[in-house]
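Task card 7
Instruction: Convert sequence to structure tokens.
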Amino acid sequence: MVYGFAARVWKNDKKSLKLPADYGEWIKKFSYPEKKAAIRTLNGKIFEVKVFNLAGDYFLYNGWLDVVTSLKLPDNSWVVFQYEEALTSFRLFHFYQDISLAPSNYFYYKAGHVKDRDDSMYVNRLFVHHSLLNTCPSYPVVVWGAGNRKWFVRMDVLDHELYITTGWSRIKKEMSITDDHLLVFEMVDFNTFELSVFSCKPALLTFPPEL
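Output:
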């Protein structure tokens, strides 16, 4: 599994960002950065950001404004920090409240979505509209996961919604996906996606509204 956490970025969080309450425990358990963190964005930029402890709460401070400015994060953005242990850094995914402003090459999925069907995974409809141009990728679609795992899946339109059908059950089984997991699919090309699975307590994730 991929470890990480999520946070909202409001207007008052542009210069510093308060980290989840359990961050201090994660320093001990996962060796998360305690003094300085490297943040790697999807466009390849790397930022050095100071981590500081104030009365038991941890914050990102010096350097965080550079991240917000570079990504042009508006108020009410939602960010996911994926911890990369080998690089001792965080990979940053970000989603905007306004889908028209959002990067178009990835979408998130919360296990147990209300629109899910038996053995099928719902694909965010606005991602389908903006990124797949309301088309259904032809079989096979390749999904790459951690450890060089690879799955061949089929995408089908069911009742005017796009789903991952064939292959989804295998991904769920091999990755032990439960309702407590967050999945991020990054589109490499029309028939190839990279999958990151975040193992986090539900209380630590503040999900954006259905986009």
